[in-house]
Amino acid sequence: MFHKKSVEQLLLEAGASGKGSLKRSLSTFNLVALGVGAIIGAGLFSLTGIAAAENAGPAITISFILAAVACAFSGLCYAEFSSMIPVSGSAYTYSYATMGEFVAWIIGWDLVLEYALGAAAVSVSWSRYLLEILHKYNINFPHQLAVSPWETVRLGDGTIVNGGIINLPAVLIIMLLSVVLLRGSKESAMVNNVLVIIKIGVVILFITLGWSHINPANYIPYIPENTGKFENFGWTGISTGAAVVFFAFIGFDAVSTAAQEAKNPQKGMPVGILGSLAVCTVLYVLFAHVMTGLVNYKDFLGDAKPAATAFAKTGYDFLQNGLIIAILAGYTSVLLVMLLGQSRVFYTMSKDGLLPRFFSDIHHKFSTPWKTNLFFMLFISVFAGFVPVADLGHMVSIGTLFAFSLVCIGILIMRKTLPHAKRPFKTPLVPFVPVAGLLVCLYLMYSLPVESWIRLLIWMLGGVVIYFLYGRRNSKLHNVRDDSVV
After folding, report:
1. How far apart are CA 58 and CA 241, in angstroms?
2. How far apart are CA 378 and CA 328, in angstroms?
3. What is the pLDDT of residue 22?
């Protein structure tokens, strides 16, 4: 259970080529765009409003800074690992090298929670903005086919929908992008680069045009008084808000899942991880400041499209439709990256024998794990169609924080066990940086609702059962060691 993969073995896998291997086709720019593509999305255009209305008020900007600090510590740890071990699989691979197979399985299973449900959450928000733009063109999509059965939503025309049948647009966008990913990483990256440029342009336009229309009264009080519950306003509400929007920062983790497809991973991975984090943190704080300055934070309650609501206050009505279309494009890039990251984690776990070989079958023409793409197309569609976006966001945040915590621990272990290993990028100020990253992540996990912990526990217990029923019996590393003993 606690056998580890050596760094030499992982590097040998990273250098493999030919049939059955992933193609190295991503440049450093592609990697930065990949990170930005995943970071700027639902966390900014949707969850910002939810966290402001329910947790932090106008101080949601402080929540973003707190989340970014946690990400910075974790990101430095990720950067060292990704330059040392340029293999797909992200935190799963790093845990395999430092803490052994069982912990690696746990984190791999956790990454399913992070990416699959993250994609579902983004698709739900994508659906909300789609309905908004359709309404503006007098196309009324049936409400019952755009809302999950257990969700109450206020639509753009003011209609309150108390539960529907299925969120069909969310399901359809997951299916469409899964097909795009089948075509290959290079082709997906080209689409993502275009969408990221559009998305950054929209964010800058929102900040620039919205700044002059800020109403200072909306910032009073900047930190609303706590209501008596830990997560409702005050300083504790700010920390809960940081935990909620932490979901938005998983983009740099997604960069590390594509390490085996990077042309120059030793250089490109650290730049991709830290560069995308730096760019997006600045944009997040400015965007949140303008959004809560345009509209009182209380008005965002139940609003899944707060960016459009806030921009309407600027008076630039002729740009409103363009803004929503660009936001849809931005969400699409997030979905591409999350679906890519998820398939690469399962591909790696399958190559190790912990999952059926089905998940690591590579398409003969496109060099992609196409069966994994199809599997998650169906799996994620179920969550996208039937689970409320707020619940999805909380589950993704706690899963992400858990993954980041283990990566911080992994750096401490690796520095002790392999002090002389080649490190193209070194995490500075060890042990301070990984310990600080671990403590901040644990605090943000503590700030999330109890329901999030219960769901995480249930999910992990299910993963443990699968590991003992299948993974441990079929592990390639385990079987090799058994053979060597014989």
Report:
1. 11
2. 22
3. 57
- Nearest-angstrom CA–CA distance, 72 and 437: 8
pLDDT, block means (10 residues), the chain with 486 residues: 72 55 66 72 72 88 87 85 72 80 87 81 84 82 82 68 86 89 65 76 87 92 85 85 76 66 71 80 89 90 76 78 79 80 81 86 76 88 82 75 86 86 85 92 84 87 92 78 45
Distances in Å between the Cα of 329 and the Cα atoms of 37, 200, 333, 472 are: 10, 11, 7, 42
Pairing state between β 152-154 and 160-162:
antiparallel
* Residue 110: closest CA among 370, 269, 352, 342: 342
Q: Which two three-digit tokens encode residue 292?
A: 């809560």
Q: At what angle do helices 370-386 and 101-136 cross, to 10 degrees?
A: 60
DSSP secondary structure, 354-422, as one string: SS-GGGGPPPTTT-S-HHHHHHHHHHHHHHHHHS-HHHHHHHHHHHHHHHHHHHHHHHHHHHHH-TTS-
Bridge partners of 153?
A: 161
